[in-house]
Amino acid sequence: MPQNAFHTVDVFATAKYAGNQLAVFEDADALRSEQMAALANEMNYSETTFIEGGSPDDGYDVRIFTPDGEIPFAGHPTLGTAAVLRDHFGAGDEVTLNLGVGPISVEVRSDGSDSEQYWMTQNAPRFGAELDRETLAEVLSLDANDFDADWPIQVVSTGLPAVMIPLRDRDALARSEVFTPAYRSFFDDVGVENLFLFCPDPRDDANDFAARMYAPGHGVAEDPATGSANGCFAGYLARHRYFGDDEIEVTVEQGYEMGRPSHLHLEAEDRGDEVAVRVGGRVEFVSTGRLV
Fold first, then answer.
1. Does pTM top 0.90 for this prediction?
2. Residue among 127, 122, 124, 135 at smallest CA distance from 155
3. 57/112 same-domain check
4. Which UniProt keywords apply (predicted)?
């Protein structure tokens, strides 16, 4: 195994040692796919990324692995890898990552304090099937009346599909738990592994929504901060006029049940033919190391 350098960061973090953990490996062009998979399994974060090369002009070639294998896109790995490229590779305040779904652009914004936020523009969301509450109630160990019937349960994708699941309140969110046999049956029928639960009942009044994300099909029982699913959620809010408008700007809290509090900032605009989606948050650098 080559002695690649790697970095760990916390993405969408409210502080260091919060948010969603990510390992980023440098100079990964010499690694074989099976070596990347083994390293992602060894790190055991929800995702690990591998920078294979690139430049500021042409973008950087990056691959994303979960403990279960490679995926074409994920949100927090995109932002975390962009932060490493900016800090260690000299990339500027705008950087492009060439991912499995194509090029994704990331920009750095100041939030008016000493910290900065990394923002990505995701692919326009595709809106899929609407699903019934009874099926998801069994999957999530909930009752049908725990769901908010004013809004649809719907599959949405900006590159990695997720089911948007509206719940009535934070009590239902806290009680949710994946029932594995029902989940397997659901996946066999629907073919979507990611379940994104949300409610307009956050702990912190400064936020707009509380959310949880289950992805056991990817080897991730629960994810503390999910940029891809929140991008889907931003598009969902704008398309369904959740606030009565075709534009939204909200903050989502996630990961509190896991002890990894995370804040994700979402922007979306429904332009009729498509929805423009942006997701942002802070990135905290944690460690640097090298394979031996």
1. yes
2. 127
3. yes
4. Isomerase
Give pLDDT tens digits for 17-29.
Answer: 999 999 999 999 9
User: How far apart, in whole angstroms, are the C-alpha atoms of residue 176 and residue 167?
Assistant: 10
Residues 135 and 274 in one domain: yes
CB-side exposure of 205: number of CA atoms within 13 Å?
A: 0
Whichever domain contains 91, its CATH number is 3.10.310.10
Radius of gyration of the chain (CA): 18
For residue 156, which amino acid is it?
V
Q: Which residues are catalytic?
A: 47
Q: Please enumerate in sequence order all residues whose Cβ is within 8 A of that of 86, keeping only pairs 6 or more positions apart, or say none.
A: 92, 93, 95, 108
Same structural domain for residues 117 and 131?
no
Do residue 137 and residue 271 come from a single domain?
yes
206 and 230 together in one domain: yes
Compute the CA torsion angle 234, 236, 237, 242 (nearest 10 deg).
Answer: -170
- Specify burial of residue 35 (Cβ count, 10 A radius: 0-12, 13-18, 19+): middle
Total number of residues shown for the chain: 292
Split into its structural domains, the chain has a count of 2
Q: Would you state the structure tokens that stand for residue 149, as one six-digit string?
A: 């019937």
d(CA 263, CA 200) in angstroms, rounded, equals: 14
Summarised one tens digit per residue, pLDDT across range 216-255 is 988 899 999 999 999 999 999 999 999 999 999 999 999 9
